[in-house]
Structure formats: structure tokens, C-alpha cells
Amino acid sequence: MQKRLTLRQRILVAGTLFGMFFGAGNLIFPVHLGQLAGRNVIPAMIGFIITAVGVPILGVAAIGNTHSDGLQALATKVGRGYGYVFTCLLYLTIGPFFAIPRCATTSFTTGAYPLIGNAASESTALLIFSFVFFAIVLFLSLKPQGITVWIGKIINPLFLTFLAILVVTALLKPSISVSAVEPAAAYQKNALFSALIEGYGTMDAIAGLAFGIVVIDIIRSIGVVDDSAISRDVLSSGVLAGVLMAVIYIATILMGTQSRGLFETSDNGGIALAQISGHYLGGAGSWILAITITFACLKTSIGLVTSCADAFARMFPKGFSYRVWAILFTAFSFCVSNFGLSKIIEYSLPVLMFLYPLSITLILLAMFGRMFHHDKAVYISVTAFTCVAAVFDLIKALPAGVKNTFHLNGAVSFAEAFLPWFHLNLGWAVPALIGFAVGMALHIFGKKRKTA
User: Fold this and answer.
1) How far apart are CA 191 and CA 421, in angstroms?
2) CA distances from 441 to 188, 379, 434, 437, 438 (A)
3) Structural contact between residues 285 and 166, judged by C-beta atoms closer than 8 angstroms
4) Residue 81: helix, strand or coil by DSSP?
5) How far is it, in rounded angstroms, from Cα 387 to Cα 434?
6) Residue 3's pLDDT is what?
7) Which strand (E) or helix (H) includes residue 400?
8) Which residues pair with 2 in a beta bridge?
9) b/e burial code for range 196-217 (CB count within 10 A of at least 16 → b)
10) What is the C-alpha to C-alpha distance for residues 387 and 431, in angstroms, rounded to an integer?
């Protein structure tokens, strides 16, 4: 047994955490952000890194700081029922609803389809590709041990090596000056706040809450057993992983901005990445990108299917077995993937707009809970006020057709009139602060009453 991780062990844990966080989605969003931000790329970078690096690392640290046995235990500080509901929503979001299908569509859009060209219609090609993709995912998810280790050791370094070659080549041969790139409408003003929402798309903040217990288990397996030491090692390893992620994000955002001298703003970052790769590295680059990103997405999908199936099997021990959950999640992901990458991103945003405020406030309460002794009254009050405001954020992010069909524009107008910073996508912040004030008042009153 040992008191703390050595520097080498800390780097190993940080590398593992980086591998869990960094998938294909962590490339498509910064590249697309760069295209949108144009000359306002610096504030956009800051906003993106806050939600795509800072919040996820705090999420991992929150699990360690509260010595929780996972997300459900942390969310149960609000209430037992809430713990189940929030955990299910979070795992379904980073699993079969959005993240797993996005792996298949990203592989197809970025890698496979540019090579196919006009040989088949896009919808038919996606159907065939996704069927083969998820058949492999299911097969390996039922016995993932050997293949996930092999892919993690071979494919991830290959992918990062290819990415480094692509990014360095693109940055050394810029097609246009960053200052000459006109920002998209949403980035003309308040680029920082617009980029906060782009960072939501990585889903890393909610994934950080799920990954926290994995990192803690790794540190424990190395021999660190003291809870306080584990908490410090989780944070320091997270910071190392976060620095690496931030460096890659900055480079890929700049690459996306400079690509505007060659291409129009793409519908999504997958298309942009394929275009940039084909331009700078030619046919060979397109093949390397297709192979590495497909295998990287396979690895991520296998990991997500296994973790989601395991989580649901544990939460509902009298329900389905792990094998049945894995089959259900894989089949559902296959169906969702055939909506296409742009649609998946479009419909995932409202859910993320709802879950992110709840995740952020839960993380902050866990990190600073000692000041109110993790009183449940504070957790309940903050979560209740945040939840109400987050519903309006969800409604605002819905596609225009959905809002018109269900006559929801009035709710958006109401929130714009009464929720401060709603136009900056931070309409939940003031209600969360009010909830904290109410919760602290209840905490102090309850403490005085017990003393009396």
C-alpha cells in the first residue's frame, strides 16, 4: 500500500482518463466551433474549454471529493428517487440515446462516406455501415476484455499520431488569416457564451460524473486507500488530462477556423474534418482517417454499451441481465444512428441543455458541500430551482418545427422576460443561486433548531 500516486502513476491515470473522455465527438465539435467562431476564436476557445474541460474534470473530482460509490450515490444526496431518475437519464444520454449512435454516424460521415462517394445513396450506405458497425459492437460487448485493451493500445496512439500530423500540417499551411474569417451570426457577439453550448455537445461533463468511480477504482487498485489521498490524486490526474485535452482543442479549433479559407461552414464537424483531411493529406489521409476513426469509435461504443448495460443491471438487479441490456442498447443505438449525424446533434442539444445545469450544480454542491455539511436541504433546494429553469433551456433548444407544433414559443418569450441571462443560455444560473440561498437558510434554521 502507498499514501499517494507517484508522478508516473499519476500520468498513467491521467492517460486513462483522457482515453475515456476523448472520442470522435471531441474532434467534430471543436473543428466546427472554429468554423463558426471566425476571428472571435479566442473567447470561443475559452467558453468551449470551460464546459468541455473544466466542468468534466470537476465532475470526476466531485465523485472523489464526496467519497461516493458512483453517480447514483452522489445524486441520491438530493433524494433516492432523484438518484435513480438522474442516473438513468445521464447513462441513456451518454449511451443509446445519443453518444453511441453518434459514434457510428461520425465514423460514417467522417471516414466511410467520403470514400464511397456516389456509389450508393447516403441513407442506404449509412444503413449498411451502421448494421455492420453495431453487429461488431454487440459481439465484442458480450466479451470485451481482450479487444478493448488491444484497440486502446494500438488504435488510440495511431489515431492521435494521425491527428497530430493533420493538425500540424494544417496549422503550418493556413489558407486564410484568422482575423479575416467572418464569424457566424451567433458568434458576432457573446462568442464565449455561444461556445459554452458547443462544449455541451461533447457530453463530457455528464460523462465525468459516470467516469469518476472508474478513476477511483484504478487508483485504489494501485494501492492508495486513504479517501483524502484518493480525492487529491483524482483531482491532480484530472488536471493533467484536462491540460492535454485543452491543447488538442485549441489546435483543432484553430484548424477549423483556418479551413474557412478553403471550405464553407459545414453542417457538422465530421464533414469538416473529412474535407480538411482530404485537402491536406489526399487520398491516403482519407483512408487513414476512415480506418482510425472507425476503430476509435468502435472502442468507444463498446465501452459505452458495456458501462451502460452494467449500470442498469446493477441498478435493477431483479430486471434484465447484462446480456439483455447490451442487446437492447445496441439495437436501439442502431435505429437512432440512421437519423444521421446532424439530426442526432440537433436533437441531443435540448436534452443536454436540461442535463448540464443539473450536472453542473450537483458537481459544485459536491465540491463545496463541506461548508454546509452536505445538508440534503441545500441539495434539494438548488436542484429544484435549477430544474425549473433548465426546462425552459430545453424548450428553447428544441427544433423550430417542434416548438411551433406544440406552441412552445410563448414559454420561451416568458423565460426571456423573467430569467436573467437566458439569452446567454445561462437562464438557470440565477434560480440556482436563489435555490442555494433558500437551502442555506433552511440549513442554518435547522441547525439552530437542533441546538435549541
Assistant:
1) 14
2) 41, 12, 11, 6, 5
3) yes
4) helix
5) 12
6) 74
7) helix 400-405
8) 224
9) bbbbbbbbbbbbbbbbbbbbbe
10) 9
Which residue is listed with cell 500520468? 11
Spatial CB neighbours of 65, under 8 Å, sequence gap ≥ 6: 231, 234, 235, 366, 367, 369
- Residue 434's pLDDT is 97
**What 3-state DSSP class applies to 224?**
strand
Q: Which of 88, 66, 91 is nearest to 77 (CA)?
A: 66
240-279 burial, b at 16+ Cβ within 10 Å, e below that, comes to bbbebbbebbbbbbbbbbbbbeeeebbebbbbbbbbbbeb
Please tell me the total number of residues recorded for the chain in this structure.
452
Residue pair 193/44 in contact (Cβ under 8 Å)? The answer is: no
pLDDT at 222: 85
Cα–Cα distance for residue pair 359/396, rounded to 1 Å:
19
226: phi then psi, degrees, rounded to nearest 5:
-70, 130
Residue type, 248: I
Radius of gyration of the chain (CA): 22
Cell numbers at 356, concatenated: 448540464
The Cα 91–Cα 100 span in angstroms is 11
Nearest to 96 by CA among 312, 362, 308, 282: 308
Low-confidence ranges of the chain (pLDDT < 70): 1-2, 24, 119, 144-153, 156, 448, 450-452
At 2 the pLDDT is 65
- CA-CA distance, 91 to 309, in Å (whole number)? 9
DSSP character at residue 316: -
pLDDT of residue 19: 77
Phi, psi of 2 (to 5 degrees): -140, 155
- Residues 38, 257 contacting (CB under 8 angstroms): yes
Chain position carrying cell 485543452: 246
